[in-house]
Each structure stands twice: as C-alpha cells, then as structure tokens.
Amino acid sequence: MSIADDVSTEWVRRYHPAAGAGKRLVCFPHAGGSASFFRPVSARFSPGVDVVAVQYPGRQDRLREPCVTDIGVLADRIVDELITLSEKPTVFFGHSMGSVIGFEVACRLDRKGVGAPYALVASGRRGPSTWRDESVHRRDDDGIVAELKLLNGTDAGLLGDEEILRMALPALRGDYRAIETYRGDPGQRMCGSVTVLTGDADPRTTVEEAEAWERHTSGRFRVRVFSGGHFFLTRHQQAVNEEIARELGV
C-alpha cells in the first residue's frame, strides 16, 4: 500500500508536506539524532521538493521503543517504509551515521530495482569500508557525554540538563553500538552518484577517509571540505543546502 505524499508515519516525517512536488529528498539523522534535526532543510526545499526525514526508534515520540542496534537491520526496516512511497526522482542526505544508513538503504533499493536515489549526499562520515576501532557504546554515561562534547554536536543546554540527557543516552548508546559494530562491504557500490561533505577538523573523519567513499559508487563522485569539526554543517548550513540543491537540480 502506498503512502500519500503529504502524510507522516511512524518512520517517515514530513514537516512541510508538499504533495505536488516533483522530486524527493530523504534525510537520515546522525547517532542520537532525530528527524526534527532536518526541519530547517525541509523549510528550505519545500514545497518544491517532498522532504522526508526518517525517525529511528528510541527517540522523541518513539522513546519507549528499543533502539535498533544493527545497521543492516535498521536499513532493512527503512527500506520497507520507503518502498511504500510514490516513485519520484530522489536524493538521499545523511549526516554521520545517517550517511552510512543512507548508503545501505540505497544499495538495498538498487537490488530491488525500485525507489533507489540517483544521488547520495554523505556528510561527516568516512567511507563505509574504512575501519576504526571505536567503543564509545561501551563507555559509562560520563564517557558518552565526553564524546558529545568532543564532537560539539549537542547543545550546551542539553548537556547541562540531567533529565533530558538521561532520556537521550539510551538512543545515543544504541546508535553508537550500531555504527561502531558496522563493517562495510569493500565491494559494495550504489548506482547513484555520491557527494561527500566533510569538516577539515573532524576528529572522527579525515579528508582521506572521506575520499574513500569513491570506491562505493559506480556514478560520479565529488568531495567538498568545509572548515570546522564533526558538525560543520550547522556553521555552513546555507552552503550545505546549496550542495543538496545542486544534486536535486533545483
């Protein structure tokens, strides 16, 4: 059964419904992130583009659901949701863990021959088959908070609000487990093009590691380096939106 182009579901959120749009942008959040992170992106591209943000279990209104701690399982579930959307030219946009999830979803849709994006904009993440021995998910709560401070991806007010932080930590731990235990297939390629956006001071991705995405596409490939750390995109939102617009052709 198809989902109408102006409807939100448990997995698929539309903050600015655009039923008549000719193209679609699907956004995948970072570890610990939620669909609402992409509300400004939705505002920028609607109503000309149907902007869809994926909501993973274990956060916001899905807080009581267990997190999915395996990237492959999470990608499978997202595929099941996306194939119910109407067919239209689509671009994927993911940040950090969301880049990997977007890639895995794209490859699965390629194999199904339905709903695959013609481009992926991968932000703040090294190539899928690169490997670092990381274990943030095994740290205690203070250790996870220390990682958040390192990446500068969480508002200082949240870090100081113990109640809100306590609610967010299970999703953070579950997502870190998913991405840190992920092993990308060195031979897996998506059919669409890949544009990689990276920060020149990101402690979790070097420019060389970002360039490793090139092995995972049979389409065109491009890297753009921004000043800043892991969450460089919050400082360069207009420029990032321009990169997305370039891929969408709008």
UniProtKB/TrEMBL annotation:
UniProt KW keywords: Hydrolase
Pfam family, one: Thioesterase
InterPro entries linked to this entry: AB_hydrolase_fold, TEII, TesA-like, Thioesterase
Residue ranges of domain Thioesterase TesA-like in the record: 26-217
Top-level taxon: Bacteria
Gene3D superfamilies for this protein: alpha/beta hydrolase
Family membership noted in the UniProt record: Belongs to the thioesterase family.
Protein name: Thioesterase II family protein
Organism whose genome encodes this protein: Streptosporangium amethystogenes subsp. fukuiense
